[in-house]
Amino acid sequence: MCIRDSNGAGTATGVHQWESRQVFDGRWLSLQDQAISWDDGRLVRLQVATDISGRVATDKILRFLAESTSADGSIDFIRRALSRTAEFWGVRWAFAGLFTDKTRTTLRTLAFYDRGKFPPDITYLLSDAPCGQTASAKTVFVPENVSALYPNDLLLKALGVESYLAVTLDGDTGPEGLLVLMDNQPMQVPDSAQALLRSVASRVHGEIKRLRGSNELNRRDNILQALHKVSSRFIGTHSLQSTMPEVLRILGRATESNRVYLASNRDLEADALLVQQYQWLADGVPAGLAQQAPLTTRYHPDLARWAEVLGNRGAVYGSVREFPASERLLFLPRGVNSMLVVPIFVAEQWWGLIGFETMDAVRYWSHTEIDALQSAADMVGAAIAQNRAQSELNIATNVYQNCLEGIVISDAEGRIT
Question: Which is nearest to 168 in space by CA: 188, 123, 138, 193?
Fold first, then answer.
């Protein structure tokens, strides 16, 4: 007996109502309890449970759309919208993308959500996909067996997708992209929920329009193109000294930074030093400000936060005015308004960093940009490791060749063979 349904004297006190989420399946239930008198005079508990999962999801989605802002960057808002939407509908995958041209046969994702993670964006051919119907139908819903219905869709096959729902991102002249939900289980989505998803799609498209009015989308595409250029510079190279200045130039122009630098660590076990190795400056940066950047800096005490964050594969970024006081004193006098620093790891050891500085305006670094530039730092780390291995091989080869004249080969009895 639930004591809230009766008073201490054993008399029914009316209906008690509350909401609860089921642990085993995640459903939300509205529960109504009431103590009633049975034929033999006993008080018994009557409970009625109503599934309100759809209503709760709707309320949360509407609250998210009403309260969320794009102040942190449109790409990040789109990521949050996808993660919230996937969570509310209980699906594994969600992505939003734009058609690459007027034929609407190819889609390039802006963000791709996969159970709490955001893997790299993809280019998706729509000719054999359920998405191919969406541009004309506005909404396509396949509740189950979608991989069998579209056997030539390699994405569905690779992921093992069972169900699929897509709505268009509509612009002034027609569909410009898609918002897609997918799951590896059958999906149940009533018409009211599909209408709600279209509301999410409308807000996402609004953020895309804002992106087009800013440089964020262009910067993202420029950085992705820069990664291909950086990768090609490292292929077959044996001289990092000749390659790194060009790599920093490519990254600096793609990110619209004023200064990009690469620095290595020294004596991490003792009083760690940060030693600048290479630097690139954009046109128009006062030489005096650039020359003020120290070639050697100790992590402790002023950059202790950097050592902790970068050493754990994190990134340091943001407006310098929001940094700790010790860091502000290092960078504000040089006119640095915002910065991003990503770590370089070589053979699983923290080797150094790449820093990006802007001096003309405060710059927000989206997570997409940070992830892409971390990939660039990973390429640098791989190139350093390869260069190190090649140097060791060259030394070993030289030692072997120089020792050939002094090698005597004999048999087990000491006779020279």
Answer: 138
Residue 66 to residue 81: CA distance in whole angstroms: 12
The pair of structure tokens assigned to 216 is: 């964020």
CA–CA distance, 246 with 236 (Å, rounded to integer): 15
At 3 the pLDDT is 44
Most confident of 43-57, 114-128, 187-201, 218-232: 114-128
| CA atoms of 297 and 331, how far apart (whole Å) | 12
Task: Order across the sheet with 123-125: list the strands.
Answer: 123-125, 106-114, 93-99, 174-183, 163-171, 139-142
Q: List the one residue out of 309, 299, 59, 100 whose CA is nearest residue 193.
A: 59
Q: Are 345 and 352 in contact (CB under 8 A)?
A: no
Q: What is the DSSP secondary-structure string of 283-310?
A: TT--HHHHHTS-SEEE-TTTTHHHHHHH
Tens digits of per-residue pLDDT, 294-352? Answer: 778 888 888 889 999 999 999 999 889 889 999 999 898 888 989 999 999 998 899 99
Cα–chain-centroid distance for residue 197?
22
**Cα three-residue angle 373-375-376, rounded to 5 degrees:** 65
Residue 92 CB neighbour total at 10 angstroms: 19
Which contiguous run of DSSP H or E holds residue 211? helix 191-212
